[in-house]
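Cross-check.
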Amino acid sequence: MRSLRRHRVVVPVLLCVLAVLGARPMAADEAAADPAGGLELHSRVGATGLSAEVVRLYEEAAVATQMYEAGREEAAEQRAKARRAEELLDTQRRHIAALHEDLGRIARAQYRTSGGLPVAAQMILADSPDGLMRGHHAFVQADLAVNNAIAKNRRAEARLSADEAKAAAQWQALEKRNRQLAALKADIEQKLESARSQLQGEADAAVAAGACRGAVRLDQPETAFPSAWVAPVETYTLSSSYGSGGARWANRHTGQDFAVPIGTPVRAVGAGRVVRVSCGGPFGIEIVLRHADGYYTQYAHLASVAVDQGEHVDPGQWIGQAGSTGNSTGPHLHFETRVTPESGSAVNPVSWLAARGVLL
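Predicted model, tokenized:
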């Protein structure tokens, strides 16, 4: 799969992006709280129509997927941290065990050096001032050693308990967030699949009637392309190629197919003018553009169109949405380059785009 603009995005940034997407104006009864807490999703088709709804859900699904994958990466990092923390906790536990052994050693040493009598008893039974002072000194030293050992042991045990609680809390928070992200992703994808199905149904009805529904204006993304030519879709998997054979075609395949989901925005590969918008026939819903160098590009098997015949378009402008209309066995974009607006004049679209700096 290829993507022209793929970036690693951290979870906080993605949360902001999704919050902006969820905060677009809508009727109060169109909002639904998502499982991630506070993020809003549209659950109904608004005034801009089903096509715009699919595009919006398409964008939100992409963001949710990025968030989910970022959460999985964070979980993997947290697991590595947890393993390192467990090693440190094991070190602390060994240290505490050593402190316990020190307490036992001190007690045994006191017993041996006092001849089996407690230090306090030796002081009471001392037969001279020097013996009394020695007993008192030994008592103070022994008491200090025991107190220090006990205090060290208690501090170590407190640190161990706090570290274990902190590690458990961090892991529980991460697991909760990942469950929320998974639920959010599944919710958006379910809505997107339903909207795609409706969009394709309307497109099939239009093709069967032989009458296009007209342009559905989509909110164009604010993008700046470094060149005058782009791929017809942003993220895709290449499928049937130019010149390949198959039972679906009377002759060789005349274009390059891009396997993409229904509703995927289709882009004008370069500046040009819309010379055809039609429905019906083997190509289903299709758009043909004429470019300044005299070549034509065709975008076929669409689910909707976002331009009207005669319009001028810019490089990367959304002109429609991919679908599976006409002679199609599954959702994809059929992209073709021609020397005339009609079928039968196709040239290899992959090499045509490569000559203009677009590598598929």
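The first strand starts at residue 2 and ends at 3. The chain is about 45% helix and 15% strand. Passed to J.P. for a second look.
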